[in-house]
UniProtKB/TrEMBL annotation:
It comes from the Eukaryota. This is Zinc finger DNA binding protein. One of its GO terms (molecular function) is zinc ion binding. Gene3D superfamilies: Zinc/RING finger domain, C3HC4 (zinc finger) (3.30.40.10). Keywords: Metal-binding, Zinc, Zinc-finger. Residues 1-46 form the Phorbol-ester/DAG-type domain. SUPFAM superfamilies: FYVE/PHD zinc finger. InterPro entries: PKC_DAG/PE, Zinc_finger_PHD-type_CS, Znf_FYVE_PHD, Znf_RING/FYVE/PHD. It comes from Operophtera brumata. Coiled coil: none annotated.
Length: 326
């Protein structure tokens, strides 16, 4: 079974014709050159091998002249009617086209209006969304600020408490350290118009210590406590220890030696002037509690009574007792 090149149908070898040049098989009817059983000329070639070979037109092939209708001898009335009908058809088609065009224009306009409405609605939604987002952001920021402020205030209060506690401890330590630089001047007679700035250097000179103005930071008098005390604060502990050591060596120093009183009343008010450590420092060193206030008041009361008796003109025995008690 071979396949025809022209019609692509299978056939037997006897029914077809084989080209001597390209060996392709074709139905005899497809070429129509050799009847069935007729011998094949050796010079014959198929159409592919000899394309310029003239081909005869088959009688059954239609011709363009047969398709065109003859116009000669046609009726003019029929031809006019046909043209009028054709014009009417064209006018109707054009009217339909215009109507369709108008309908499409309306549809497109309505579609455009709908799109514009959708666009405006989307714009409003976008604006509302932006406003809502802004409001939410403001609220979140407000709550966050309040939270941070509350937290900061809480932290600040705790920090302030810690700072106050630390300052109290520092103040206490500084006071304790300041007491290490303090000396109390006891037994100094009180007079009107006295100046401690002159008395303290005079006292230091009498005990053999030279003081500079910058070495004495503070000089205070305890007015509410009797007997009164003059508290001197030095800038250096070395100066304070030197004054204390020299004062212990000069315990016989009196107010007369300082030249604070007139000679006529020096024997009456003569008292020993001592430089001693503050009570808080002494108590810390000895581990003992301060003396009761009643004892101090009783000592001061006895001293005042003795002074009055001496001033009243009593015997010299009172004066000797006063000096002995002092």
């Amino acid at each position: 079974m071979v396949k025809c090149v022209a019609c692509a149908k299978f056939m037997s070898g006897k029914d077809g014709v084989t080209c001597p040049k390209c060996s392709t098989s074709t139905h005899r009817e497809c070429f129509g050159v050799f009847p069935v059983g007729a011998p094949i000329n050796s010079k014959w070639r198929c159409g592919d091998c000899h394309p310029k070979m003239p081909k005869g037109r088959h009688p059954g092939t239609p011709i363009m002249q047969d398709i065109i209708l003859p116009t000669d001898g046609a009726d003019p009335e029929c031809e006019t009617v046909s043209l009028d009908a054709f014009v009417c058809i064209l006018v109707e088609m054009r009217a339909q086209f215009e109507s369709m065009k108008a309908d499409l224009l309306l549809e497109f306009q309505s579609f455009k209006g709908g799109l514009q409405e959708i666009q405006s609605t989307l714009g409003e939604l976008k604006t509302d969304q932006t406003t809502t987002k802004t409001d939410l952001t403001v609220q979140v920021c407000f709550h966050l600020e309040n939270y941070l402020v509350d937290k900061k205030n809480t932290v600040t209060v705790s920090e302030l408490e810690q700072t106050v506690l630390g300052l109290k401890l520092s103040l206490n330590d500084s006071e304790q350290e300041g007491l290490l630089h303090d000396l109390e001047l006891v037994g100094l007679p009180e007079q009107r118009g006295e100046n401690l700035s002159n008395i303290v250097p005079l006292l230091a000179t009498n005990i053999g210590v030279t003081l500079d103005e910058r070495e004495v930071l503070q000089k205070d008098t305890t007015l509410n406590v009797r007997p009164r005390k003059v508290v001197i604060r030095f800038s250096s502990r070395i100066t304070r220890d030197t004054c204390l050591r020299r004062a212990r060596e000069c315990r016989g120093l009196t107010s007369t030696d300082l030249g604070l009183w007139r000679a006529a009343r020096a024997t009456v008010y003569q008292r020993v002037v001592d430089l001693i450590e503050p009570a808080a420092v002494r108590q810390g060193k000895r581990g003992m509690s301060p003396p009761p206030m009643e004892i101090l008041l009783e000592q001061e009361r006895s001293y005042i009574l003795a002074q009055r008796r001496c001033l009243a003109g009593n015997s010299n025995l009172c004066r000797r007792r006063l000096n002995k008690n002092n």
